Amino acid sequence: xxxxxxxxxxxxxxIKSFSQKIDGNKISQVYEVRGISxxxxxxKINFAIALIYQNANDVVVFNDSDSKxxxxxxxxxxxxxxxxxLINPKDPSLLDYVDYNHDYTIVLEARxxxxxxxxxxxxxxxxxxxxxxxxxxxxxxxxFLAVDLERFKLKAIEEMNQDYxxxxxxxxxxxxxxxxxxxxxxxxxxxxxYSTILFQSIYKKIIDDLNKNDW
Length: 215
Known about the structure:
By secondary structure, this protein is an alpha+beta fold. It contains five helices and eight strands; from the N terminus they run ββααββαββββαα. The chain has helices at about 40-50, 55-60, 85, 145-160, 170-210; strands spanning about 20-25, 25-30, 60-65, 70-80, 95-110, 115-120, 125, 135. The longest helix has about 40 residues, at about 170-210.
């Protein structure tokens, strides 16, 4: 899928919204726009999308004025802490973060006085300079539990016990294993922040357009 860069400028605005809901790889939010019809909100959403995405026609796959529903399919680059850098901090060939590509789907629905945004991430992957595909070792979730973090620490132990890491010191192996909860917590926080910034950007574009002065 073609990479679409998003303007992710976070503005400090007063947002009238319901609680954010998270379920695994899905995150959603309902925003109030009182006194505005569903048709008007739907039109403003289209305007906001055209401003935020560089090539809106490439990412909007469904746009229905009857149901007041829009579906977007695009891709986000999500930085993930590089665990191998943590155990080899002086290695200049290793980056602190690795950008993993995440395909995502957004569904926007407009009703009188409000609209909802739901975003669903696909699992992350990236290609190295040789074209080799690397999958993120954990799913694109935003609600990992403590038991999940312990499970990934066990997987890290299994990984460090492989022959490939035979020459790696016990200290470095332990750093890698203990880093997994930190890496995953940072990752799910980044996913939530990415979505929140995008949601707020759409909301702000809508409010700015509603409040613009006549010329």
